[in-house]
Amino acid sequence: MNHTEQLTYREAMREAIREAMQQDPSVFLMGEDVGHYGGCYAVSKGLLQEFGESRIVDTPLSESGFVGAGIGAAMGGMRPIVEVMTVNFSLLALDQIVNNAATLRHMSGGQLGVPLVIRMATGSGKQLAAQHSHSLENWYAHVPGIKVLAPATIADARYMLAMALVDPDPVLIFEHVMLYNRKEAVPKADDCPAMDQAVVRQQGSDITLVSYGGSLFKTLAAAEALTEQKISAEVIDLRSLRPLDTQTLFSSVNKTHRLLVVDEGWRTGSLAGEICALVAEHCFWALDAPPQRVCSQEVPIPYPKHLEIAATPQVEHIVTTAKQIVYR
Amino acid sequence: MNHTEQLTYREAMREAIREAMQQDPSVFLMGEDVGHYGGCYAVSKGLLQEFGESRIVDTPLSESGFVGAGIGAAMGGMRPIVEVMTVNFSLLALDQIVNNAATLRHMSGGQLGVPLVIRMATGSGKQLAAQHSHSLENWYAHVPGIKVLAPATIADARYMLAMALVDPDPVLIFEHVMLYNRKEAVPKADDCPAMDQAVVRQQGSDITLVSYGGSLFKTLAAAEALTEQKISAEVIDLRSLRPLDTQTLFSSVNKTHRLLVVDEGWRTGSLAGEICALVAEHCFWALDAPPQRVCSQEVPIPYPKHLEIAATPQVEHIVTTAKQIVYR
Amino acid sequence: MTAANTKPHINKTHLHFLLKQMVRIRRFEEKCAELYMQEKIRGFLHLYIGEEAVAVGVMKVLQEDDAVVATYREHGHALAKGLSMDEVMAEMFGKVTGSSRGRGGSMHIFDASKRFYGGNAIVAGALPMAVGLALADKMQNRNRVTVCFFGEGAAAEGEFHESLNLAKLWSLPVLFVCENNLYAMGTALSISESEQHIFKKAQSYGLAAVEVDGMNVVDVEAAAQKCCTAIRQGEGPHLIECHTYRFRGHSMFDTQLYRSPEEVSTWQQKGPILQLKQWLEHNGKLDEVEWQQIEVEVQQEIEQAVAFAEQSEFEPASELCRDVYLESA
Amino acid sequence: MTAANTKPHINKTHLHFLLKQMVRIRRFEEKCAELYMQEKIRGFLHLYIGEEAVAVGVMKVLQEDDAVVATYREHGHALAKGLSMDEVMAEMFGKVTGSSRGRGGSMHIFDASKRFYGGNAIVAGALPMAVGLALADKMQNRNRVTVCFFGEGAAAEGEFHESLNLAKLWSLPVLFVCENNLYAMGTALSISESEQHIFKKAQSYGLAAVEVDGMNVVDVEAAAQKCCTAIRQGEGPHLIECHTYRFRGHSMFDTQLYRSPEEVSTWQQKGPILQLKQWLEHNGKLDEVEWQQIEVEVQQEIEQAVAFAEQSEFEPASELCRDVYLESA
Ligand SMILES: Cc1ncc(C[n+]2csc(CCOP(=O)(O)OP(=O)(O)O)c2C)c(N)n1
Ligand SMILES: Cc1ncc(C[n+]2csc(CCOP(=O)(O)OP(=O)(O)O)c2C)c(N)n1
Ligand SMILES: [Mg+2]
Ligand SMILES: [Mg+2]
């Protein structure tokens, strides 16, 4: 692959899987419709033909069963990539993730490890309504024993998987459904920061905007709009939701003295709340205004476009809230 | 029942169930071992003998199945109280709670309602180790469409269930395992505040300590220790984790100018974080010190007593942290 | 099962009714596919085309107060259960006049007054709900049936297992109807179930179960009739496995890499509408005029529904947060 | 199953070994109950007393590198799989010398070197893990068996269903062993399963399954032998339902309101140790001296284990957070 070529997020993810499978025979992909269907979001399209049924494994509809099987296979020396089609269905596998994957190393006194990668699509934007539009990354970020990534850029889609596979512990990767069609040039692998580092996507001095995943580009767009209004916003892409790179976060807030967090999760108990709390705890004296957040409305996401838009963070909310913070 | 008699939390809960069943034939109790065994924590002991198998229903081990059946039964005109033995096992029923119970009213355009009460034990302290010591109230408090209660006092154990059963929407009740043996005199029902109100359990002026459920009494003990050290702490018992009574919270912080939240959940993404974020957003200018929290260490809870103690909030952490906040 | 002793009394009116119901569903969904292309309908759209005999056959034997619980592929069930096509179409458009105020769309059609409980988009997630509805009936001594439709793919989920056990254990009035269309999205039954006869699974719960040609509406009706009668007589839950096939992709996004056009067309030959129509014609019970009349009536109903949907309003965004709880209404 | 063609070759040494293993487990647990009263052991303690024949019979046919996945009632399995009694006892005490550094206690005994994968306290939660361990073996062309023990109560959980399907679908080398002791906590099998023969449920997955007298260690061994041989020959997963009974309460908190003392004592007459001991005595294969020798040796092993546990240190609280991730070690 030529590193300057343009790839979609989907293709970048596929390249990442393909590369991992080529390099390590113990890597395999397992999940609902990853094979014959080509992946619910077409990420794994063509991989069945390339690697065969023994390594691209279509599973029955049984999320708890195959996620648990992934845990066992990881303990047995394999390097499974388990695709749980979307975060909405991952609720059925939560017991396996929280009670098994996250606990086994500690609970066994360090004897066991679960080097498992679980990928899932997340977020709203495709008018899929209440049961198919969750953003529950915050729940997973709450659990010690697992790591949680949210690649937003094409580069991260391309390179974070490899880092997750090297990691000896369970890593969850959240892929926002609205990102799959984004296209960008892919930089060299060496230019990709470690998976647990937040990245300043835009430098600024008046306010820190923190985001991740699907909300990142809305936040960047808002930052651009703010620039036009002479507000210099620094944009941080968290990338890793657990662990959190608080250093990058705190340095930025200590510089800008203002914070706005953008997160598609419901407001109460959102990851955005955690970021605000951390900053309030650690950068209190540096803050010139209350830390704020733009989140989803506290409502099951409805089907019609205008209501879906009304329910979730949009560029104008970010801009308006940022202005309020800066001008207060 | 004589209202001045002393009851344990367990007995108060049992009285509440008994009363509800006597008053309304559509109320029934369903869950694992609620009948013949007498309830995992003996809450329902004797109720099978009193009400019979048709109303005290032992279920097979199938959390998703019987919680979902509770949802259907509630839609069908019954008033089920579903006991999910502990929050640890509720992970297996999360899909039913989040994707069905919480969404049906909104998603159906207001046609359907799920007047269901789900009770579960929560928390650590009994040396039950990693898979049996979760405090995941924050997860549930994140979800629009459900309400979440955490009765801490005997009075609340005695009266909140009735309020939950009157509510037309799904209500989850968390009972901390370390509370079941506490004993107290039971006041009159009329003295019990509405289920969505936070209560100031101790008045104070120097710092607001916020807590709920199992941590409340540690917080009250800490407040007492602080009084001896001439620090006047106000203690708020949240009681309702969703919705949050922010008015009581904000008034207190606006008076004391300092906040410490005590929560047995893991720190990152805890409900304590949400409270800190809310206060930082809404009471920023009133705060004289960074809002802080005492939470559990980010580790699966271990079995040995000394490690379980080290992992979870204790009175001395609360006292030390409160002093740091007040004296900084 | 022989025709003689189990098939319902078949007369022309009866068969014409079944035919027309299937045609209503077929044409409605063809229109939906068109409207999807025009971006009037969005989100996931799962067409039932090819499987109409199942919903129509089962619904024929239900009484008004029997309950139906279905999946995200539920337009057919909604129409067959008696929901107005106007409201169903408006729901697809996301309009406030839709059966769920437009908030659910294609996957979440509800009508409490018709006892139509969705429209459920988590595979197998509605089976426990059906058990609960039936439990409420039993506890309140109401002699009603709750019918729960689901795909063969759902049978692999733990909730299938838990629900069948509960239903039988408590002897509840539920009819489980498995729509075995051979695929769960792109995953063939042969690679998802070690035992591919879903009705045989019912045996592990002691449940009475049968399989039936799901392309033959009369067979489906007969089986449903038998089961519902037994259920109403207190014989507890039953299961029917209907062998059927979806002629279209899983949803509008499906490129159907997992099956051949030949396979699809073989099944199309056995299509439920085609089959019944040919049988009626062959037996002199349907002439061209009658057929055209059905088509025309259905066409009119659909045009009316589209017009209704088009003319309806969207729910104002200011009402976004109502109905999260009852109080907020 | 007749004794003639399936029972393993039985000689005195072999039977004495089985007897001693069962006595080790029995006496170990009796000691644990005592230590619980003394508050040396805390948390939940689930005794296996009465069910020893299952773990001992199955483990006898395993090879060293076969894997075992068990429940929270796993002391017997741990000892039979070859974990040192010292480490198991230290684990019960929560000491750092315990098999899981004391962090797991009674419910979470692990030994990676012995391929003993717990010690899992979520009912049915370890079945998928067993499937995965076997999947890894199959993918890496290793001819090993993974044995997964669980109670009859676990069979109602969705994970039982999903795991059996996956195991058979992928033809994995797993032996599922259902310890049917008739109760899940206080819930009798008769009120929790509509089909009470667990082994019959295996048919819905096309799995080979048998039932066996779980109080007869030789029968258990024979069944396990047969199944493991088939599994090693590539015949895929098998299930054994062992009819057994726990003589003690579910855990130390159980007041046993749900069963009568008479029922318990009836089963105690069929106790696995009693049964084998009497048979051996009756057939002149065990005399009082030999029996006493077993008891004395076991007694010594237990005393040594208790001393080891008593003398061991607790893990310092400063190490609380190590092993959450590998890096933090
Ligand atoms: C729990 C869950 N997992 C995955 C999905 C995604 N999904 C939607 S429909 C479907 C296939 C279901 O197949 P089947 O039950 O046979 O019904 P059919 O669509 O064939 O009617 C899948 C995998 C989902 N909605 N819910
Ligand atoms: C998912 C889950 N639900 C409930 C419990 C509480 N619980 C622990 S053991 C048990 C009974 C299990 O019975 P069975 O599977 O027959 O095993 P046994 O204890 O009889 O060996 C229950 C209900 C649990 N640990 N996990
Ligand atoms: Mg299907
Ligand atoms: Mg049992």
Distinctive features:
heterotetramer, A: 328 residues, alpha/beta, Rossmann fold, 2 domains, seven-stranded mixed β-sheet, five-stranded mixed β-sheet, 13 helices, globular, C: 329 residues, five-stranded parallel β-sheet, two-stranded antiparallel ribbon, 12 helices, 7 strands, 10% strand, disordered N terminus, binds thiamine diphosphate, binds magnesium ion, THDP-binding (chains A, B), thiamine pyrophosphate (chains A, B), Transketolase-like_Pyr-bd (chains A, B)
Notes on the structure:
The complex is a heterotetramer, with two copies of chain A (328 residues) and two copies of chain C (329 residues). With 328 residues, chain A is α/β, with parallel strands linked by helices. The radius of gyration of chain A is 19 Å and the shape is globular. Chain C has one domain: Rossmann fold. Chain C contains twelve helices and seven strands. Chain C is globular, with a radius of gyration of 19 Å. Chains in contact: A-B, A-C, A-D, B-C, B-D, C-D. The structure holds thiamine diphosphate (2 copies) and magnesium ion (2 copies). One thiamine diphosphate sits at the interface of chains D and B. Chains C, D: The pyruvate dehydrogenase complex catalyzes the overall conversion of pyruvate to acetyl-CoA and CO(2). Chains C, D: Its EC number is 1.2.4.1.
